[in-house]
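User: Hey, quick favor. My workstation is busy. Could you predict this chain's structure for me?
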Amino acid sequence: MWWTYALLSALFAALTAVFAKVGLKGTDSDLATAIRTVVILFISWGIVFFKGSFTAIGSLSRQNILFLVVSGIATGLSWIFYFKALQLGEVSQVAPVDKLSVALAIVLSVLFLGEVLTWKSIVGASLVIVGTLILIL
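Assistant: No problem, here it is.
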C-alpha cells in the first residue's frame, strides 16, 4: 500500500509545482510559502482531529518531538527555497533539481540510519542524477 501513497505524493507534488508557479506570479515567494503553510496547517490538524489521533500526542517521546521539530524546520526551509526557485526559474527545471532529494535521501539514509546501499539503489540514484542533469542542461 505504501507505493499507492508514494504515487499520490508524486502526483500532488507535481500539481504543487504547477499551481505554485501560477500563484507566485507577481507575489513574494515567502508570502506565498506562508499562505501555503497555513493551508497545510489546517488540513493536517483537521485530519488529526477527524481520525482521533490527537489523543496519541501524550505518547510522544522527547526524541519523537525533537526530530519532528527538526524535520519541520527542514521542510519549511525546503519550501522557502523551492518557492523562490519556482519564482525565478521554470517548473521544468526546478522540479527535477528538487527531485535530487531522492539521491540525497538514499545517501543520508545509509550514513545516518544504517540502511543498506544496494546496487539497485546506487543505479537508481545515479539515474536520477543523470536524468536531472539532462533535463536542466
